[in-house]
Write a structure and sequence with these properties.
single chain, alpha/beta, Chemotaxis Receptor Methyltransferase Cher, domain 1, Rossmann fold, 2 domains, 7-stranded mixed beta sheet, 10 helices, globular
């Protein structure tokens, strides 16, 4: 076991927070050491100082990509925090269907999409909701994550029997196809609705030309300190259309005195 000194941990955690917003407190030191051991051993590093120098000097981006993949937890599943999806179907979609009837361009961003369960769930809901009118609507979802590893999984769109347990039998028959005894693949009618990209939420500016009608950023900001979270929320607000919604995780919260979003229900906010 290669241990990490306080100084080494400070260097590494400061670099990660400055560039990716992830706040690694002292409590995470053991976790970081455990998750990075294999990388150090495989590259014959004798210390975390050597590893840190390797990360910051690597021009290919591969080293930092592997680091982020190791330290972030991408736990998700279909229909996670189901009340959000119910609200999206019952309240959000009817509002925008009426408001955008002429344009039929519904822009949704799944920020921190992990392995794809969230955006694919949203796409299935919308396919059901719009029904035979779906071809007249542009409802493609931008799905982003900082981890190349989970974006790759989302692009493959293959999920095990265990992973699709929370998916209704109707959806499995309609939107999935079994590819072997243990796995399912999302059908192209849903898969083609998702635009997957690697994206760092800590970028100083967002490259979007149009604002979003709905932003999902759930269970991402648990990694951020208050200042980082406040700045991100304000950027989300800037890129939300008037009347648009922001969904965050139930374990997260927004200080209502520090945002112009209006609280609607637990973990759901709106720009008015």
């Amino acid at each position: 076991m290669i241990n990490i000194s306080d100084k080494e941990f400070s260097y590494l955690s400061t670099y990660i927070k400055s560039n990716y917003g992830i706040n690694l407190s002292e409590k995470k030191k053991t976790l970081v050491v455990g998750r990075l051991q294999n990388i150090l051993l495989q590259n014959n590093f004798s210390s975390f100082s050597q590893y840190y120098e390797y990360v910051i000097s690597d021009k290919t981006g591969e080293a930092i990509t592997n680091l982020i993949n190791k330290i972030t937890t991408n736990h998700t599943y279909f229909m996670r925090e189901a009340d959000h999806f119910e609200f999206f179907r019952e309240r959000v979609l009817p509002f925008w269907e009426k408001s955008l009837n002429n344009k039929k361009d519904l822009r949704i961003w799944s920020a921190g999409c992990s392995s794809g369960e969230e955006p694919y769930t949203l796409a299935m809901i919308m396919h059901d909701y719009f029904g035979e009118n779906k071809p007249f609507w542009d409802t493609r979802i931008l799905a982003t994550d900082i981890s190349m590893k989970v974006i790759k999984v989302a692009k493959e769109a293959i999920y095990s029997d265990e992973q699709v347990q929370t998916v209704s039998k109707m959806w499995r028959q309609k939107y999935f196809k079994r590819i072997d005894d243990a796995n399912w693949m999302i059908r192209d009618v849903i898969k083609n609705e998702i635009v997957l990209r690697i994206f760092n939420l800590m970028n100083k500016s967002f490259p979007f030309k149009k604002k979003f009608h709905v932003i999902f950023c759930r269970n991402v900001m648990i990694y951020f300190d208050n200042e980082t979270k406040r700045n991100l929320i304000n950027k989300f607000y800037e890129y939300t259309e008037s009347g648009g919604y922001l969904f965050i995780g139930h374990s997260e919260s927004i200080n209502r005195g520090e945002t112009n979003y209006k609280y609607i229900m637990p973990a759901v906010y709106r720009k008015e």
